[in-house]
UniProtKB/TrEMBL annotation:
<dbReference type="GO" id="GO:0000976">
    <property type="term" value="F:transcription cis-regulatory region binding"/>
</dbReference>
<dbReference type="Pfam" id="PF00126">
    <property type="entry name" value="HTH_1"/>
</dbReference>
<dbReference type="InterPro" id="IPR036388">
    <property type="entry name" value="WH-like_DNA-bd_sf"/>
</dbReference>
<dbReference type="InterPro" id="IPR005119">
    <property type="entry name" value="LysR_subst-bd"/>
</dbReference>
<feature type="domain" description="HTH lysR-type">
    <location>
        <begin position="1"/>
        <end position="58"/>
    </location>
</feature>
<keyword id="KW-0238">DNA-binding</keyword>
<protein>
    <submittedName>
        <fullName>Transcriptional regulator, LysR family</fullName>
    </submittedName>
</protein>
<dbReference type="InterPro" id="IPR000847">
    <property type="entry name" value="LysR_HTH_N"/>
</dbReference>
<keyword id="KW-0805">Transcription regulation</keyword>
<dbReference type="InterPro" id="IPR036390">
    <property type="entry name" value="WH_DNA-bd_sf"/>
</dbReference>
<dbReference type="Pfam" id="PF03466">
    <property type="entry name" value="LysR_substrate"/>
</dbReference>
<keyword id="KW-0804">Transcription</keyword>
<comment type="similarity">
    <text>Belongs to the LysR transcriptional regulatory family.</text>
</comment>
<dbReference type="GO" id="GO:0003700">
    <property type="term" value="F:DNA-binding transcription factor activity"/>
</dbReference>
Length: 300
């Protein structure tokens, strides 16, 4: 029995199949199968019921999971803390929401390559709900998403906050006075798609003021939404800090509204069982390179 066999065993458990585990490990399915056969031979028991389409654990396999996670965690911790930076190897599957991708993700990837040159990263871009689903099923190791996300099986590490405010192009001639949701709704609203983590917050903001939220254009990409806003097609809710350059250049103008929406937190999310130092190292670097505000901010 060796660490690689146990790592392969756990990846099968997390992904649900030998084929999926092979893909995430950048190995062939025959290699994965061989490692499990060797592990079973060394333990003298069968770990998986191979009569099913998915890799189902036997009773002995279930007994091994917790111990295997602890052994792998301890071994990885030794490599990470005692060995040099080249000792941190493997592949981390990282989910990233659009706003992080278009702002400080390149900074994170550059720092990651510098610190851990032998660590491979597989990026997956998506909406928060999609990435959280993949985290639950074991298709991702870590996700940088919009918070809050509160689930018993997931652990969140704060990456900071951004204040979302209504914006428009200056030529749209939206009044400079404080506007209510009902008054803002009189202008063409460019909205995030219904699958967005922000959608229910925006909808509630209008509903609480007895106003209708009826976006003329919906989009699941913040950058596209900002570009459409810059062209003067309507008003949209955008992260203030992420678009400070456009505001300073006069391409976007912040609309004064009452009430204001609260600051939005972003988090690094992983499963409670995923205590691999590789995941911990990437989450730590995400905290270090994040360009979000460290505490809630407000325009008030």
């Amino acid at each position: 029995m060796d660490i690689r066999q146990l790592e392969t065993f756990l990846r099968i458990v997390d992904t649900g199949s030998f084929g999926a585990a092979a893909q995430t490990l950048n190995a062939t399915q025959s290699t994965v199968s061989a490692r499990i056969r060797e592990l079973e031979r060394s333990l003298g028991v069968e770990l998986f019921d191979r009569s099913q389409h998915r890799a189902r654990l036997t009773a002995k396999g279930q007994d091994l999971v917790a111990a295997a996670r602890e052994i792998v965690r301890l071994a990885s911790n030794v490599r990470h803390r005692i060995g040099d930076k080249d000792a941190l190897t493997g592949t981390v599957r990282l989910g990233v929401v659009n706003l992080v991708a278009i702002t400080w993700l390149p900074k994170l990837m550059s720092t990651l390559r510098e610190r851990y040159p032998n660590l491979a990263v597989v990026l997956d871009m998506g909406l928060t709900a999609q990435l959280v689903d993949k985290l639950r099923t074991g298709d991702l190791d870590l996700a940088l998403v919009t918070g809050p996300v509160v689930e018993s099986g997931l652990q969140a590490i704060s990456l900071g906050f951004d204040q979302f405010v209504w914006m428009c192009a200056p030529e749209l001639d939206v009044p400079s006075r404080k506007l209510t949701p009902a008054e803002l709704a009189a202008w063409p609203v460019l909205g995030l798609s219904s699958q967005s983590h922000h959608y229910p917050v925006i909808e509630r903001w209008f509903r609480d003021a007895h106003a209708d939220y009826r976006p003329v254009i919906s989009c699941n990409n913040v950058r596209v939404l900002a570009d459409l806003t810059v062209t003067g097609l309507g008003v949209s809710l955008l992260p203030r800090m992420s678009y400070h350059a456009e505001i300073a250049a006069g391409r976007l103008r912040v609309i004064d509204t009452a009430p204001q929406l609260g600051p939005v937190e972003f988090v690094a999310l992983h499963r409670h069982t995923a205590t691999d130092p590789v995941v911990e190292a990437v989450a730590s670097l995400a905290m270090e390179t994040s360009e979000f505000e460290r505490g809630p901010t407000s325009d008030a």
